[in-house]
Specification:
The relative contact order is 0.20. α7 links the parallel β5 and β6. The radius of gyration is 17 Å and the shape is globular. The N terminus is likely disordered. By secondary structure, it is of the alpha/beta class. The protein has one domain: Alpha/Beta hydrolase fold, catalytic domain (Rossmann fold, 3-Layer(aba) Sandwich), CATH 3.40.50.1820.
């Protein structure tokens, strides 16, 4: 269904889209979006983080760099938890990177009032949180049985200690100083009904990248998952503007 909503692009070049995951670290939640996005790219690479290894942002950045395309120009997409990874990589201006897409994500702790308590998250019961509450926060009125099942499966596939560590890492994150080094075109996808992050989170990112394009899309925090066709259309339009730079 999403494929029909993507603008027809005459791409005289080959480019890849590299999709970084959310807190779960898996590609499962982004499968429908990746399928919708395939019409605009030569290939879509969905990176998954190790589900049983406790890796901080610096280690995840190194992990991602090893999987970046070597033969094709590429656009890097960082959603939610992976925003700081995508920002750090883009700021270093690696060869081949022609565009950056950020979706419902942050450059510094999205909940600064909780940062002093980050070390206590190792005791937090990630999975015992009622799924209905988690769905309300992450999906809201866009929740469907299929999305709920995929969300549940994704979280259950990852070690609880890993999820808690990633949560703490997000609360401590701050790559704000790297924003000004990003010179490539940037697209920020902002959800209309994000119940997890306030509007100030995206505002901070955009203040550091004044040339970024912003597209507001009706949807919840899990925007790529709940509105894959709309996100794919926005990214396809963004990519069409990069054509002259990656031919």
């Amino acid at each position: 269904m999403g494929l029909r909503s993507i603008p027809t692009l005459a791409l005289p070049y080959k480019a890849a889209l590299v999709v970084l995951p959310g807190l779960d670290g898996l590609a499962l939640l982004s499968a429908a979006f990746a399928e919708s996005m395939g019409a605009a790219f030569e290939s879509v690479v969905s990176i998954s983080y190790p589900p049983d290894q406790v890796l901080g942002y610096d280690e995840l950045e190194s992990f991602v760099r090893n999987d970046l395309p070597k033969e094709l120009p590429y656009v890097l997409l960082g959603q939610s938890f992976s925003g700081p990874v995508a920002i750090a990589i883009a700021a270093s201006r690696p060869p081949g990177l022609v565009g950056l897409v950020l979706s419902t994500t942050f450059s510094k702790s999205p909940m600064p009032w909780l940062s002093p308590l980050a070390s206590l998250t190792r005791f937090a019961p990630v999975r015992p949180m009622p799924h209905a509450l988690l769905s309300w926060v992450l999906l809201g009125r866009w929740a469907t049985r299929e999305l709920d099942e995929v969300l549940r499966a994704s979280l259950q596939a990852v070690s609880s200690s890993v999820l808690r560590f990633r949560g703490a890492a997000a609360l401590r994150a701050d790559v704000s100083s790297r924003l000004e080094a990003i010179s490539i075109p940037v697209l920020y996808l902002r959800a209309s009904d994000d119940r997890l992050f306030s509007r100030s989170v995206s505002a901070h990112v955009l203040a550091g990248i004044p040339h970024a394009e912003v597209v507001d899309i009706p949807g919840p925090h899990l925007l790529l998952q709940a509105a894959p066709a709309e996100c794919a259309s926005a990214i396809a339009r963004f990519v069409s503007g990069l054509a002259s730079g990656v031919e």
